[in-house]
Amino acid sequence: MSAVSAGGGNRSTTLFVLRNAPVLLFIVLLACFGLMSDRFLTVTNFVNIVIQAAHIGIIAIGMTFVLLIGGIDLSIGANMYIVAAVLGLFLKDLPLAISFPLVTLIGLAFGAVNAWFITRLRVAAFITTLSTLFIGRGIALYFSGNKMVGFSPEVLALGRASYFGVPSAIWGFAIVFIAAYVTLSQTTFGRQIYAVGADPDAAGKAGIDVRRIVFSVYCIAGVCAAIGGLISLSQVAVASSTFGFQKEFPVIAATVLGGTSLFGGRGGVLGTVFGAVLIQTVENGLVMTNADPYLYPLVISIIIFIAVFIDSSRNSILERLERRQIRVERV
Amino acid sequence: MSSTQSITPGSAAEATRPQRSFAVRLLMSEYLVLVLTAIYFLVMWALVPSIATADTLLDILAAMMPLLVVAIGQTFVLIVAGIDLAAPSILAAASVAGASMMTGEGGFALFTGVPIGVGILAFVGVGLLIGLLNGVCVTRLGMPPFIVTLTTMMFFSGFALFYTSALTDDGSSFGDLPSAFVAIGQGTWHGVPYSLALAGAVMLVAHLTLSRTVFGSWLYAIGRNPRAAAISGVPVRRAVLWAFVISGLCGGIASIIYTGRLETGTPVLGQRILLDIVGSAVIGGVSLFGGKGRVTWTLYGVLFLSVVDKGLQLLGLDLASVFAIKGLVILSAAVLDAVRHRLTLRG
Amino acid sequence: MQISRRAFTVGALVAAAGSSISVMVKAEGSKTVALLFDSLVSPFWVSGIEIMREKAKAKGWTTLENISNFDDNKQFEQVKAMISRKVDGILIIQTDAKAVIPAIRAANAANIPMVHFNRPPAKSDAYSVAIQADNRKIMQDTVGFMVAKAKKQGGKYKACILIGDLGDVNAIQRRDGFFDVVNANKDIIDVVARVSTEWNADKAFAGLTNAIQANPDINFLVTSSDFLHPQIEQVLKSANKWHKTGEAGHVLFGGFDGDEGAYARLQDGYLDACGVQNLFLEVDMAFGAFEDLWAGKKPEKLLLDPGFVITQEDLMAKRDQMWGYTVWKKMQKG
Amino acid sequence: MTAAPFFEASGLCKSFFGVQVLHGMGFTLRPGQVLGLVGENGSGKSTTMNILGGVLPMDAGRMTLDGADYHPRGPREAEARGIAFIHQELNLFRNLSVAENLFITGFPKRIKGLPFIDRGRVAARTQELLKAVDLDIAPNTPVSRLSQGERQLVEIAKALGANARIMIFDEPTTSLTTRETDRLFDIIGRLQRQGIAIIYISHILGDVMRLCDDIVVLRDGHKVGQAARADMTIEKMITLMVGRTIDQMFPPREPPVTLGAPVLEVRGLNQRGMVKDIGFTLRAGEVLGISGLMGAGRSELARILFGMDPHESGDIRIGGTQVRELSPAACMDHGMAFLTEDRRAEGLMMEASIADNIALASLPKFGRSWAGFIERTRLGDEVQRISGAVRINARDIQRTLVKNLSGGNQQKAVIGKWLLHEPRVFILDEPTRGIDVGAKYEVYKIINQLAADGAGVLFISSEIEELTGMCDRIMVMAQGEIRAEFPRAGFDREAILRAAMWHGMKETA
Q: What is the interface pTM, i.e. ipTM, of the complex?
């Protein structure tokens, strides 16, 4: 059996444009900002954009895992702050090679707490992570006493460091991305995440350990929040009592902008990286062109809107063009 | 959290089911959130006796009204499996637009002689417009509600700031509002706050709409299975559009109450309460996945959060304890609900 | 099993709330003052609330705290809760100058004195006392000092300002103070970047990085709050622009608040000038206002902290008035 | 066939909520044996198979596999012991590829000890398995692009990949075309020759007779009969299943002497890639069948007629009036109703009560005043009446959720929904798919009653027997066109099948 497909040269160009619409939008944006500021289209500036997108991007990669199984994690900001507080208050004197893995473990433990409530007690993910958002920040605030948390000079030096000409933040971003990409596309675990997201009941019947998968993705989100928090704090050098506060919004925005569905089963980390970089590009372009700060949210929201609009209308047009043709039964 | 669903076993099961203790029956009822509110209240009463004074109780009631109104709007959208993240920006944009009409410091509508009327129209109009915009994007352009309302939230919050900075001397807010308008948020009639009456009316209309009308039944059907609803002749797009418009309208009305209470039209109004809005509906039992929810459930959720907040305010603890206790209380409620759900499933 | 778990959760809830009983017991007796902050985002506020706690304790007062997280409506609720608690005085840091008026009225009606710390309310018929630093004036003086230094050094300057949250009066006043001076000196100073920080550290970091990227020759930098210094230092170090006064490539750098970081950077020679709000004075003024009000006196509605500018040159002479120096000293010890 | 049994179950018992649904069920399996399992919905077939597949634990009883105790604690263990379950609702993940679906519980790894998937081996092994089930598609084809029949074969390939020794088929042919069914049976024969034991559950008794070596009949959780094929007849099976004799498979149908006025007229209906030049007239009181292979355009035609999909040209009159802007709402206004082939996804709100489902399509009729307040008592009475008329078996239609009903009762709820709307044209797309004999009979009776009351019925089905038993006239579709039409007097199974396969025969000829 095969689908009868009517093809035409004209239609395939349309399809090409549609399929690559987000990239084209990105190019148009680059051209616009490039025309308005001659310093925008430079390698250094692109490096800057990626550095600034790194921490949101990394956390959003973790969020992608959670959204892929149809869950949500609102507590990542609190997780970031706990990591910052512990690193700055208790592990200041330890070498990075020890303190970083330790706080990453704390991020993992935080994710595991979420996961435990969600998988064992079957509390809804939204409410669980809403609660741990408060509890986590409360605990960390107890440690920090609301004070600014500072870090050892090594941490700050790491924030500015480059290895083989590539800044540390980009290294972190790239490593997390590659690990996540390979996990999702090249491992049984990754493919099972998609299966659980598409239909948890069917996944259970097929013999997939659904609880283990769900548990793991919240842990992954916790680890990513910790790593993203580390990158962020190594850049901004101190963590105030609002470090990571309300970070869930830009993180989920980047993930969803990258094409990951909130209802599970659809999306991927490549899109997430694209989403995070796109938002940062716009913010960067606005500063480069010395725009009125009041206009920032207006312009950013309009551009996100256009991106999503193109994406959704593209999908419906693609659907129409590739509509199921009559199936002919082969005899 | 979920509603009371009953699996209907055979009649034999009914007969063999052991008599349940009062505690278990209470745990399984839809009033669980109310019970938890009461328990929390009693604990607080022991710690801070002033929580049980008439004034404080009236404060709690009056204070929860605007949140209730905006959460009711959210309930409509949640029932059709949508979400309206734009609610805070509706509060803010309506607040500055309405206040800019009425302010004694050069309001646009002063010349009309009835600035209050124009102002109220502006509140409601801004709410309706943003709701309509969200609805059109979701139903006509086929965009996901989450991202549509996220962008409208950013846009209109930004716009409210921009508008205020352009039109006020200090760039922060519109004050000097007419006293008759302020009364909507603060005034009382024989001890009953006007805001209570207004929110009560909204609640009644919303409750009747959802539970008694064709439109309400359509909304539930869309939330439960949009394809089946469409095939059964439900005007899915139109109904979803209306759900967003209603959410916008509720945002506008809530903004009137907030603005009246604060005597100020401010662009930062409600910017931090998004999780309170969605959270109270969800704690009450409204499903984020559509098809399940009631106005009364949302009321319980709002009451719960309001009482929790007021108790913490009265204690006057440091921020760390406030966060930790609030989180623990919500989590305990959620765990209890999960336990209840399992008991229900067990039959 | 269900029952036991339920009992457990309820028990946990009671225990969590019960742990605070001790706080409540102390609340009986002597004067009780409510401290209502809108956030504790910068060292200024954190030090502020700590100084208040200490000074109140020294006077034998009890304090209650509430943080509104920039939510005017929630803060109104908190004022009402404090009125319910029948406190003897309310110290408030509101987010919006106008939205606080109903709260003042409510306090007036309950006959509880109200003092605004660092941010005055808008004009109204309600009575309360406000303590405020003269933001615009202090910023004018700070930038004025920098401009004078710039003139002495000669050359043209590309300036950048980090602006605070656009909804905050203090941020607006400081911005205006900055522009009052630079606009009068357009011949040598050209403002090439206005970075909107929303009082948010990573926004400030990204915004300043981008600004330096767009204008690598920025050599005149003013921040509306000292709590952004660590980010500024990170960015300037990355751009290889972090140099002491007198070294080649030094960026003229001005701060505001006078926190411990500002003191350290003044001492090390990176910061040229800092507009200091006299936090100790402001707390004393606020508590003094309470005592006056309890005594039946009626202080002026607005009490100004004139503040002062501290520079590398007069650091030793003035540092004892700088609250950041005290905090810094304490940190050096502990 | 003479091999000794390697699997034995005896005395299986199971209760839900204190109700015993399985009483001492037992059977044996030999390698290469096909065991048919028949019974009405609720008779305990699914419970038995769920116990076997490790989905449910048993309360009492014993199972042995190769002489050793077999008590699976979950589907994984069942799978590991060589028992595969081909579910009725196919458990494939639409968002994954065919190859990924085959290996979702464990991909071959590139290097032992590292988690990376060896894509090359996956593709090769998938090719091999697909070949074993005669499926000619690329391993990386997304499952969402496959037809129901193809998905079924993928499931079988998956079971083969897991080295299954017992394969359980639960209603495998409900959504398959005749052609696909034949192919499935060929493959089952092949599996049988490889020594795999098959448990075959179906309501289509003809298939059971054709395929199975032994047949077990269940009623109310009891095993009421077991016999080799030679000793069993369809009539005997029905008698055992229902506990009484059903004289015929179909209720008597008296064709109307004079047909009424046209209720649905279609002329020159076209939609590229879907349907081509469709024209027919349906009259009041008539039951018009549409036969054809899967993909012949039957469902597509129905969807276009009900305004769910667009059409490029054509003239459609419902009840004599031309309807230009087709939409479900417009069609309903003209008295049309449509029962779709996918009742779970398109027919029902699974999480809602029976009453809510029945009321859904007729709500505006019960709206009062401008606000549309629902007249709840009148609606309640009407819904109760309808539910009685279609004989839904549930204790409380206001509280019982549809998801807890059997397939037959679910279908009756969908039919009830449309009956409340009082249709004059009723399009039924596979109305008896996956429902048991008793329920089928009741659906047929409802259809007869509808026609007798003057409605026109368009009856789409893949079961030719059903059409010949129920219709006054049958149209046969192939490749989006109407290829033949048979009056009741001229019904001929062979001729209908030939017309349906005309295209294919020309190709192979």
A: 0.82
